[in-house]
Design a protein that fits this description.
Distance between the termini: 24 Å
Strand order of the largest sheet: 1-2-4-3
Largest sheet: 4 strands, antiparallel
Helix content: 10-25%
Mean pLDDT: 74
Structural class: alpha+beta
Radius of gyration: 13 Å
Low-confidence stretches: 68-78, 80-89
Number of helices: 2
Strand content: 35-45%
Number of strands: 6
Length: about 100
Amino acid sequence: MNAIKIVHHNENRIKVDFPYNNNIAATLKKIPDAHWSKTLKAWHIPYTKSAFDLLKKSFPDIEYPTKSTNLKSVEIDKSTDSIAVSYTHLTLPTNREV
């Protein structure tokens, strides 16, 4: 799973990419204002601290970034539903953006 900041329909969002998994999709749907984009072929959630906190809570193996670090991304092993972590980039919103 990768999480990156995007602009979608003139709005800052967090795009969440992952190999299709019903459990992950169901969990993401629980985040308020989470949407599937046919254009992006990915889920996206609001670019807010509260949405990102819910993402971290839902996927506790994700390490969140500071301004000088990268978010660890997650890959799901479908046979075991285990999570493998690797790096991608996401800068958290400041309180002013929330």
